[in-house]
Amino acid sequence: RDMVERIRRYQESMRDYIEGITQGQEAERARLSRDLHDQTVQDLIAMTQRLQLAQRALERGDTSAALVALRAARSLAQDALDELRRLIRALRPIYLEDLGFLPALEMLVREIPSPPAEFRVSGEARRLRPDVELAAFRIAQEALANAVQHAGASKITVTVSFGERGLTLSVEDNGIGFIPPDIPDTLTHQGHFGLVGMRERATLLGGRLEIRSEPGRGTRVTAWFPAG
């Protein structure tokens, strides 16, 4: 009977995990679609309007007004290009492949518009296995997104520690916090799909993820990966 119950719990846990991953993917797609619509598409619409104004100004021989409209269109085109580059980096971190985990993470932290984010490094920095670097980067990316979008924080601190036995990554904020479940498996039931994904990334590579938080006292997400 104990074995049957264990199998049942495992099957239920796997169903919850698959559901969580699926919902997490859908949420990420919705976020990407929203970002494209709210920023990039609006910039392109405004740019088209400025180009139309420039065309009308040229047709009536008003080169001064045409230049003003063209400068505005160029500025909007640059804004759209910058936003698309940011989204591309989020989907496929090119800097991670070329420069490694540490420079890519530092660039990610610098791109945070608000709240202020502090970046700290200790130990002897070195390149890690590609799968470890990608997992650590994605965990940092998700933790930072949570801190920026949901925590209501006024400060974020990202800490990377290189040790002999492995890499430790910490993302801490002073936001509203929450009550983490005593049993990690209940993260899915509570809708914390991003936290579930972070934990799975660490576990699959022999690492671990710890979440410490209290209402009104912020949140700290710590991931550890073995050096091997």
Give a verbal description of the structure:
The protein is of the alpha+beta class. The protein has two domains: about 1-90; about 95-225, 2-Layer Sandwich (Heat Shock Protein 90), CATH 3.30.565.10. It contains six helices and five strands, in the order H-H-H-H-E-H-E-E-H-E-E.
Order of helices and strands: HHHHEHEEHEE
Can you tell me the CATH class of the largest domain?
Alpha Beta
Q: What is the spatial order of strands in the main beta sheet?
A: 1-2-3-5-4
What sort of overall outline do the alpha carbons produce when their principal axes are compared?
elongated
Report the CATH topology name of the largest domain.
Answer: Heat Shock Protein 90
Overall pLDDT score: 83
Mind telling me which CATH architecture of the largest domain this is?
2-Layer Sandwich
Taking Cα atoms only, what radius of gyration do you get, to the nearest Å? 22 Å
Write the layout of secondary structure elements.
Elements lengths: L1 H58 L3 H29 L2 H6 L1 H10 L6 E6 L7 H20 L6 E7 L3 E8 L19 H12 L3 E6 L5 E8 L2
Parallel strand pairs: 1-2
Antiparallel strand pairs: 2-3, 3-5, 4-5
Helix pairs in contact: 1-2, 1-6, 4-5, 5-6
How is this structure best summarized?
With 228 residues, the chain is α+β, with helices and mostly antiparallel strands.
List keywords for this structure.
alpha+beta; five-stranded mixed beta sheet; 59% helix; 2 domains; Heat Shock Protein 90; 6 helices; 15% strand; 228 residues
